[in-house]
Amino acid sequence: MYSSMKRALRPLYSILLLIMVATTLTVRVILHYGSIQLKYDAPLFKSPEKPVFNATLLKYASIDIGESQLKQDIEELLEGNFRRRGRQRSFLSSKKYNIDVRMKPARGISVQLRSPEFYRLWLTFRRYLSDWSRNRRFQLDALSELVNGVKVPLDKYNGNKVLGKKYKSCAVVGNSGILLQSGYGELIDSHEAVIRLNNARTGKIFEQNVGSKTSISFVNSNVLHLCARRKGCFCHPYGTNVPIIMYMCQPVHFFDYLVCNSSHKPPLVITDPRFDVLCARIVKYYSLKRFVEKAGKDVVEWGAAHEGANFHYSSGMQAIMLALGVCEKVSVFGFGKSALAKHHYHTSQKAELSLHDYDAEYDFYHDLVKKPQMIPFITDKFQFPPVVMYH
Ligand SMILES: *[C@@H]1O[C@H](CO)[C@@H](O)[C@H](O)[C@H]1NC(C)=O
Ligand SMILES: *[C@@H]1O[C@H](CO)[C@@H](O)[C@H](O)[C@H]1NC(C)=O
């Protein structure tokens, strides 16, 4: 009885077994497919689609409203006409250079340039300024050029055998008051390179929150201009061995560069003007986008609302851009504001400068972290490093 039942069930067993095998196989196949598809979905294997950028915004972002004024300034400087420059004039007519800038410049070489020492300085100044001026144009791969322009000189100075290898990790330390009580000091110092801005103070009372290591001091030329009046160009809150990377706010600051470069042991690198133009375009694009999309205004009114010709990216923004070019990973500290925090952690400055559009810059950082493909004016060949913003 039992055995006959067993015999009768045998085909049933076989069918069950067959179904089980078949099911397992199917599941395997699905799993297999699934894993392939998962792999393809991962960002490493598929770069996200580039968005279609709005041509109007791109066009307006590419126009430099201050261009003609700057050209004129440069022309005058190349001719040796310093009359219109208040602060610079007093610097140039200080004991050090002994020139009388009150005299009217003649055609060609100005009669201001009386001391031979100053004349030599002026010739170098002219050379640097005209090179800079000629290179001040847009170049798509300016970010990729940073390794050669910045990292290689630093490697040479540090005696590194391998030149132009990107930093494994970088911390860009902004100066926002949100850093106070952050306790990020140790985390900041654990990065291979630490970039600080505009000579913000460090030291015992800040160390726990901002760290103590500095690999690159990033400044704008206004900062160096103030240092240039001090004995020995003293401008080294982080020590005399820390390289300085600087962008030119005003062409006349090439004098400060020349004066300070001679007494500065580590490299004092001026940012490539093509890199400056790229930074300017990106920030302006985000500012225009915000103006049109969030405020609902007309794109042509943007100039009047943002001090048109004076509009400028912040030093912090360019320091982050620099890090994108020379670092494999970027951590950003001390950017952002809060109702409770001071504008700067180390000063009592309350307000933001109106020639910057920090909100637009935050929009840019947001894309940088989440969707870097949304950032305009960047070549497809450039790979953004991962960026983390610490708040
Ligand atoms: C691009 O932006 C301009 C200015 O805001 C707007 O007028 C235009 O409609 C936009 N074009 C597209 C295709 O979205
Ligand atoms: C700046 O200093 C560096 C290093 O001392 C030197 O190689 C370079 O020629 C200097 N540049 C100028 C314009 O003096």
Question: Could you describe the 3D structure shown?
Answer:
With 391 residues, this protein is of the alpha/beta class. The protein folds into two domains: 46 residues; 278 residues, sialyltransferase cstii, chain A (Alpha-Beta Complex), CATH 3.90.1480. It has a seven-stranded parallel beta sheet with strand order 5-4-3-2-1-6-7. Strand 2, helix 8 and strand 3 form a beta-alpha-beta unit. Helix 2 packs across helix 11, helix 3 runs antiparallel to helix 5 and helix 11 packs across helix 14. The longest helix has 40 residues. The chain is globular and about 55 Å long. The N and C termini lie far apart (78 Å). About 9% of the residues have low confidence. Bound molecules: 2-acetamido-2-deoxy-beta-D-glucopyranose (2 copies). The site of one 2-acetamido-2-deoxy-beta-D-glucopyranose has 4 residues, from helix 10. It is found in: Golgi apparatus membrane. Pfam families: Glyco_transf_29 (PF00777). GO terms for molecular function: sialyltransferase activity. It is a single-pass type II membrane protein. InterPro entries: Glyco_trans_29, GT29-like_sf.
Summed up, what is this model?
The protein is of the alpha/beta class. It is 46% helix and 7% strand.
Chart the SSEs and their pairings.
Layout: H1 2-41, H2 55-62, H3 67-78, H4 86-92, H5 116-135, H6 146-158, E1 170-173, H7 185-189, E2 193-197, H8 204-210, E3 216-220, H9 221-227, E4 244-247, H10 254-261, E5 268-270, H11 273-294, H12 302-305, H13 315-326, E6 330-333, H14 358-370, E7 387-390
Parallel strand pairs: 1-2, 1-6, 2-3, 3-4, 4-5, 6-7
Helix pairs in contact: 2-11, 3-5, 5-10, 11-14
Bound molecules: 2-acetamido-2-deoxy-beta-D-glucopyranose (NAG) (2 copies).
The site of one 2-acetamido-2-deoxy-beta-D-glucopyranose has 5 residues, from helix 2.
GO molecular function: sialyltransferase activity
Protein name: Beta-1,6-galactosyltransferase GALT29A
Family: Belongs to the glycosyltransferase 29 family.
